[in-house]
Design a protein that fits this description.
With 389 residues, the chain is of the alpha/beta class. It is 40% helix and 16% strand. It is built from 12 helices and 15 strands. GO terms for molecular function: cysteine-S-conjugate beta-lyase activity.
Length: 389
């Protein structure tokens, strides 16, 4: 395995970065949005240079190599056999989620989510005229588990027709096990609830854990689900606007494809195509090294919090590069803590209420995908504000 240098600090200010240019104040250190501060894998950079050297950037056609890369990656990495006819391409996982919800629901129906959960789930559901049904995850030690009784009761609601799954789960950091996914699938199938599985974080898995695609668990899960995926999050190429949908059921796939075209998110740019192929065909060692670096950052965070912030605890990280901090003992709401950190510490983290007003309050989400020096500076600023509350 090669050793890639993830410790290199790259100045991203004034580069049009959502993460770094959100605030006019250059002193603010951003540890919020899920965007890595690492350069893309060398193979991706080289593929993009070759495409730039071509010099013509017209409308792009997805080629055989694009499909082959996805099929090979899913089989090699996750032991999931995907048929080419099951794959649809689009611009991003969030647009894909909106398209899938629109395709599989009627206005007024409900979409089930397990809170706290990725904030864009809420807007994607509401934007399609659907209601939100919540099943809160239960704290179990330093992690979360499914409240199976409540989850099943929600699925039994005749208005709930879709379950929007986050796999791995953002922000709780869970990598769902095969048995958990099988149980979710069985409950949903029994109650005629279709599953949309957002698997954008699927490559960001920490040591000791294994990602399992929802549809790969069993035939029933595959028939009753739509999978959303992209190399964008794992390989830090979100700006290249490329994602794909995998759906083996012909009727569901036809409906999703129709909405992708109605919403006009059916065209992808040539750089996204080349980046996906380079990521999946040539960058497997890079992603393995990346996950190890993120894990080491997590251990650094845990040690710092244990020694310097006794009223704060860190939830177990199984997947993603997003740490979930429990600050309930501080006696502050998430929004209050976030504002204090911003104004007094010049460090910006995500308030837990973004991921559920009720189930996210009392938590903060911190992005670990940055050089160690950046993380350490951020932690010092956090300590300055929270240590004496």
């Amino acid at each position: 395995m090669k050793n890639y240098d993830f410790s290199k600090v790259i100045d991203r200010r004034h580069s049009g970065s959502v993460k770094w240019d959100h605030f006019a104040d250059d002193e603010v250190l951003p540890l919020w949005v899920a965007d890595m501060d690492f350069q893309a894998a060398p193979a991706i950079q080289e593929a993009l240079r070759r495409r730039v050297d071509h010099g013509v950037f017209g409308y792009a056609q997805v080629d055989d190599g694009y499909y082959d890369a996805i099929i090979s990656w899913q089989q090699r990495r996750h032991q999931w056999t995907v048929d080419r006819s099951s794959i649809l391409y689009t611009t991003g996982v969030v647009p894909a989620a909106s398209c899938a919800i629109k395709a599989l629901t009627l206005p007024g129906e409900k979409v089930l989510v397990m809170t706290p959960v990725y904030n864009c789930f809420f807007s994607s559901i509401r934007n399609q005229g659907c209601g939100i049904a919540e099943s809160a995850l239960k704290r179990d030690g330093d992690s979360y588990v499914v409240d199976w009784d409540h989850f099943e009761r929600q699925c039994q609601d005749e208005k709930v027709t879709v379950f929007l799954l986050c796999n791995p789960h953002n922000p709780a950091g869970r990598v769902w096990t095969q048995e958990e996914l099988r149980r979710m699938g069985a409950i949903c199938a029994e109650n005629h609830v279709r599953v949309i599985s957002d698997e954008i974080h699927c490559e960001l898995v920490m040591p000791g854990h294994t990602f399992v695609p929802f549809a790969a668990v069993c035939e029933q899960n595959q028939r009753n689900s739509v999978t959303l995926c992209s190399p964008s999050k794992s390989f830090n190429i979100a700006g290249l606007q490329n994602a794909y949908v995998i759906c083996s059921d012909e009727e569901m796939r036809r409906r999703v494809d129709r909405v992708i075209n109605i919403f006009e998110v059916c065209d992808v740019n040539p750089f996204g195509i080349e980046a996906l192929k380079a990521a999946y065909n040539e960058s497997e060692e890079w992603i393995d090294d990346l996950c190890q670096y993120v894990w080491d950052n997590y251990l650094c965070l845990k040690e710092f919090v244990a020694c310097r912030l006794p009223k704060v605890s860190v939830c177990r990280l199984e997947g993603t590069y997003l740490a979930w901090l429990d600050i309930r003992q501080l006696g502050l709401t998430s929004d209050e803590a976030t504002q204090r950190l911003l104004h007094d510490g010049k460090v910006f983290v995500s308030s837990g209420t973004l991921y559920g007003q009720r189930d996210g309050d009392g938590y903060l989400r911190i992005n670990l995908a940055c050089p160690r020096a950046t993380l350490e500076e951020g932690l010092k600023r956090i300590e300055k504000v929270l240590a004496y509350i």
